[in-house]
Amino acid sequence: MYREDRWVYESIVGSIPGVDFSRTQAMAIQLGLFGIGVIVIAALTDRWTAAPAGLAAVVVVSAGSVLMLTLGRRIRNLDVPGWYTHTLFGTGIEIVLGVFSYVGLITYLFVAEPREPGPSLLETLLGPEPSVLAVAFTLLVLWDVCYRIGTGWWASIVGLWRSVLFAERLDRSTRTALMEADLVTIGFAAVQLVLLPFLDGHRLLALLVAGHVVAVTVVSGLSVLLLRQSR
Predict the structure, then answer these.
(1) What residues have CB less than 8 Å from 104, skipping those under 6 apart?
(2) CA 90, 93, 96, 97 torsion: positive or negative?
(3) Tens digit of pLDDT for each residue in 190-214?
(4) Contact 70, 209 (CB under 8 A)
(5) Rounded distance, CA 199 to CA 204, Å?
(6) How far apart are CA 28 and CA 146, in angstroms?
(7) Which of 31, 86, 151, 212, by CA, is between 20 and 30 Å from 192?
(8) Distance CA 95, CA 151 (A)
């Protein structure tokens, strides 16, 4: 039963009849569709200065797709406790964490930041009177970024929990594979550092992104350490 658990993202992709995307295809499709969207909207609104930030966000989203597909396929093929795969993939907690992240971001962008001196991030990127299309597309991309961040949090937390409880009970090859999974989680968090150059002048958001990367690195790094020491 547990081995059929999927990320919500995987369930959506897998619901398309006859479709089985590889990691390369998933990233290419995500980069292509969202990347084209960024360029088209930049052209329609004449806001080319926002295009690099939009493309950086698309890279984060695409890397997140690869993370989810990679972890899903690798971990479900391992001989690990069923509760671990079910907790990681089948509970949908990554959606909840993504929603919390998204609500916090939207509240900051539309309520808190406009009360501060200086132009807001949205004004810097989209102009003082942004088009409805540009705002809608930006919110879509931001949701995808937040969802991937929530997934990274959940993979990191559950990975450490798994290592604390079961590291010494797993065989060498399984521990090695799980260490690689933890390193993939750290790698995805590190990819999000590409957003920092576009947050110059927006200290709180920059600190939150950097803090998120550090937190995931510490938590998943502890998991790797526990697995390594159990060899």
Answers:
(1) none
(2) negative
(3) 999 999 999 988 888 999 999 999 9
(4) no
(5) 9
(6) 20
(7) 86
(8) 7
* Confidence at 168, pLDDT banded by 50, 70, 90: confident
What the block records as the tokens of 106 is 């939207």
Question: Which tokens is 68 given?
Answer: 């989810």
| Tokens describing residue 74 | 């690798």
Burial (Cβ within 10 Å: 0-12, 13-18, ≥19) of residue 41: buried
- The burial class, CB within 10 Å (0-12 / 13-18 / 19+), for 115 is exposed
Q: Which of 188, 172, 163 is nearest to 62 (CA)?
A: 188
In angstroms, rounded to a whole number, what is the distance separating the alpha carbons of residues 80 and 161?
13
| Class of residue 161 by CB neighbours under 10 A (exposed 0-12, middle 13-18, buried 19+) | middle
Q: Say if residues 113 and 120 touch (Cβ distance below 8 Å).
A: yes
What are the tokens at 172? 């060498």
Answer yes or no: are the C-beta atoms of 30 and 69 closer than 8 Å.
Answer: no
Residue 36 pLDDT more than 70? yes
